[in-house]
Structures are given as C-alpha cells and as structure tokens.
Specification:
Elements lengths: L1 E6 L6 H13 L5 E5 L13 H7 L4 E5 L4 E5 L9 H6 L6 E5 L8 E5 L15 E6 L10 E3 L3 H12 L5
Parallel strand pairs: 1-5, 1-6, 2-5, 6-7, 7-8
Antiparallel strand pairs: 3-4
Length: about 170
C-alpha cells in the first residue's frame, strides 16, 4: 500500500484537495482510502445514541455496523494518540492511502500553500515534502509547483511519484 500525504496550514485547502483527488484517482481504477488528522477533539456519534452511551459507559472500543457501513470508535482515554503507522496497520490495504495532516510523520507529502493564508512554508523544514500545490505562482520554491485547481495534474504527479498505474 502506497502512502502519500497532504499537508499545509489550517484553511489552506487540504481537505478540498483531498476530496477532489479521491474521485480523480478512483476514476482511474485505483482503490483509495484516507486518514485525516484532527488537531482538536471530534466526535462521530451523538448524545442519546446507543454507541454514545456505550462509550460513555466506559467501553474502550465500540463498533457500529449496518448494511451500508461500519465504524470503529476507539477511546484513547489516558493513552496517547496513536502513531500514524499504528493507524495504517488497522486499515484494509488499498492501492493508495492519502494522509491529510500528520505533518510530523515520515512519509512523502505535498504541501498545499495559499499566499493569502499566512504562515511559513513547511517544505523548508520537512525534506519529505516533495512538491507544493498552490493557487499562485511561487518562483522562490525549488520543488515542483502544481496548480492547486488542477486535480488531474496533481493525481498524475501522485501516481507517478508512487509508481501507480491506472487500472
């Protein structure tokens, strides 16, 4: 399974790019999964629902299953956030796993950069960033610079880098 990351500052367009890349890549016959890092807490179920009551009763893990999908909710409680490799190990193998966020982990990444969003470039500190996607020219960047609005070209780049071929 190939792993490729999308990183950038909050509000840069990482999620927008990821949700544009998934259909572009699956349309080429690849199987694709995603992992998204949430900097802040999040909850996928609601107060009053059975799964919520199971978790709040103290269950370490709760699986919710239907004919359409299933989800595993794992409570970290006093344990630290798992490493990316541990999360990847829990996933079903696919052709490509897109990782949104997880800036500090050791996998190849594309930086999403919008000049108006502020913050420093990440690629100047992270040698695993191999290209930058932006909505503006970046003549000062020495890495490949891709048009943020061209999902097809970015998919071509990711597939070439990961040595994936369309099915």
């Amino acid at each position: 399974m190939k792993v490729f990351g999308i990183v950038g500052w909050s509000g840069s367009g990482k999620t927008t790019l990821a949700v544009r890349l998934v259909p572009e890549l699956t349309g080429r016959g690849l199987t694709v999964s995603t992992i998204k890092h949430a900097r802040h807490g999040f909850d996928i179920d609601k107060p009053g629902k059975d799964s919520y009551m199971h978790r709040h009763a103290g269950a370490k893990e709760v699986v919710v299953c239907s004919t359409r999908r299933w989800a595993l909710i794992h409570e970290n409680r006093e344990t630290p956030e798992p490493e990316l490799d541990e999360l990847i190990g829990r996933m079903t193998p696919v052709d490509l796993l897109l990782v949104e966020g997880f800036k500090a982990f050791d996998h190849d990444k594309l930086e999403v950069w919008r000049p108006g969003r502020g913050g420093d470039f990440l690629h100047t500190r992270d040698k695993r960033i191999i290209a930058v996607a932006s909505d503006a020219p970046l003549p000062e960047v020495r890495l490949p610079v891709l048009n943020l609005d061209d999902a097809a070209a970015i998919a071509d780049f990711v597939m070439g880098h990961c040595r994936l071929e369309a099915a």
